[in-house]
Amino acid sequence: MAGETPLTIREVHARPLDVPLSRPVQTAAGDIASAPVVLIDVVTQEGIVGHSYVRTYTPVALPALARLVYDIGLMLAGESAAPNAVERKLQAHFRLLGIEGLTGMAIGGIDMALWDARGKAAGQPLISLLGGRPGSVPAYVTLPSMDPGAVAADAAQAVTAGFDALKIKLGLGDVAADVEMIRAVRGAVGEEIALMVDYNQALTVRDALERVPALDAEGLHWIEEPTRADDDAGHAQIAEAASTAIQLGENWWSREAMSRSVAARACDHVMLDAARIGGVTGWLRATTVAVRAKLPVSSHAYPEISTHLLRVTPTAYRLEYTDQLNAIMRNRVRIVQGHAVFADVPGTGIEWDEARIASLGQ
């Protein structure tokens, strides 16, 4: 943009950190007891530092991802901190290896930090830098338990906190167990609350098709990733059979992967993960696919930066709220009458609580 201060990358810091959770998150793929993240700091020669983070979901991957981010930083030292220029360089460098997995997360994390630095240099929040206006985004919360009694209590607490949309995890048992979970939540919060369910890829296509009639009868808002994330044909069969919307996208690594799913009619809603889709740059590119297909866009994880991105997404729908990293953040996403609001400060607003990080002793 004209008038912006040019920035040059001096170095990139990458810190692995395994943040303990107050309660485990239960999924069909197993319990998650902590939030393993790599904290990324892009330091510029002009003294501006851009922050971001990426999640690995398993502590096993933390050292490898941190080292990869650091090594990419060595390659970028002395280069322009312009996000588009860096993305072109990294896309070319990793073309033969591919940009999925840890490589894709490293690229997305660095991109988010560069945009943070760019916003700080311009003295504008990311929303404004992208042509939008600060404000709120409709949000929902994912409940951590897969026990009917516990999830009912969690649902009631979430509604008291202001949420009008909730998501629960399914897939540990048979369809009767799924319906029991759904009805436990309905019994606690009533029919007016939007309720989504997430299988985390736990079902075969055949199993999903067998469950669709029972799920359709429950008035759900969407069914998320019922089968393997990369099975576009299978999800297309499920989407055709279901009257409930099918939600996909948190495991897309590029606009091209998203385009293939959308072309296959594999989903009715799309969900973007800011790190996996390529950071801010990748998100902006991916949303053009959703706009053409007139598909609602929600976010997966990364509520701090997703609040900005959804504000400039033409078909924005809902933000997935999580407070798992609040303990290490100086600025936090707030929920006000079911909407997410983040700090109106230059950049993305991500700033580390260094005292809390030090107290974790890692």
Summarize the structure in words.
With 362 residues, the chain is of the alpha/beta class. It has 2 domains: 9-123, Enolase-like, domain 1, CATH 3.30.390.10; 129-354, Enolase-like C-terminal domain (TIM Barrel). It contains 12 helices and 13 strands. The chain has helices spanning 62-76, 83-93, 101-122, 126-129, 148-160, 175-189, 205-216, 232-241, 255-263, 279-293, 303-311, 354-359; strands spanning 9-25, 32-44, 49-55, 137-142, 165-169, 194-198, 222-224, 246-248, 269-273, 297-300, 319-321, 334-336, 339-341. The strands form 2 sheets. Strands 4, 5, 6, 7, 8, 9, 10, 11, 12 and 13 form a 10-stranded mixed β-sheet that branches. Strands 1-2-3 form a 3-stranded antiparallel β-sheet. Helix 5 links the parallel strand 4 (137-142) and strand 5 (165-169). Helix 2 packs antiparallel against helix 3, helix 3 (101-122) packs across helix 10 (279-293) and helix 7 packs parallel to helix 8 (232-241). The longest helix is centred in the first third of the chain and has 22 residues, at 101-122. The radius of gyration is 20 Å and the shape is globular. The protein starts with 8 loop residues before the first strand and ends with a helix.
Largest sheet: 10 strands, mixed
Measured between the Cα atoms of the first and last residue, the distance is 40 Å
- CATH-level-2 architecture of the largest domain: Alpha-Beta Barrel
The CATH class of the largest domain is identified as: Alpha Beta
| Helix/strand class | alpha/beta
What proportion of the residues is helical, as a percent range?
25-40%
Per DSSP E runs of 2 or more residues, the count of β-strands stands at 13
Classify the beta-strand content into a percent band.
15-25%
Shape assignment: globular
| CATH-level-4 superfamily name of the largest domain | Enolase-like C-terminal domain
Task: Give the uncertain stretches in residue-range form.
Answer: none
